[in-house]
Model the fold of this input.
Amino acid sequence: MAIRTILHYPDPRLREKALPVEAVDARILSLINDMAETMYAAPGVGLAATQIGETVALFIIDIADDDEPSDLRVFINPDIVSKTGKLCFREGCLSFPGITEDVERAAQVTVRALDRDGNPFELTADGLLAVAIQHENDHLLGKLMIDHLGLIKRRIVHRQMSKRDAD
Ligand code: NI
Done:
């Protein structure tokens, strides 16, 4: 296992679209281990493969509280098949360190994906888990938190992040 470098906005690699995983093989399992180690070290509640420069359709989420045992969820080739309701949540992103912004998402989603054993599953989620699934799924499409903001906020965040990288 290894802690990988998390790409920060505006790195253009964050805009790349992930390609489907052909087989859940040793390479993918090793990538999942690296991603988990990287996410827990950050620390964060979600990480998409594209955030460490791997253009494969895979993200992980662990929304367990600090005083709860870890609950790592793996989503390979995810597909959000339904969205209902609206929810506004203050989101952060490991690719936007130090920044949190209110983002509007669907309140409930149903996602289909493969687990780390390569078995298909379907999950209906709401609350923080629904937010995290939509946020991480966006990463696989090359879409970022900043894209959900209004023009003025988007400019401010862009400037903050551009300045941060230049320092
Ligand atoms: Ni993110």
Summary: Residues 93-95, 135, 139 surround nickel (II) ion (CB under 6 Å). Helices lie at 26-41, 127-140, 151-166. DSSP finds three helices and seven strands in the chain.
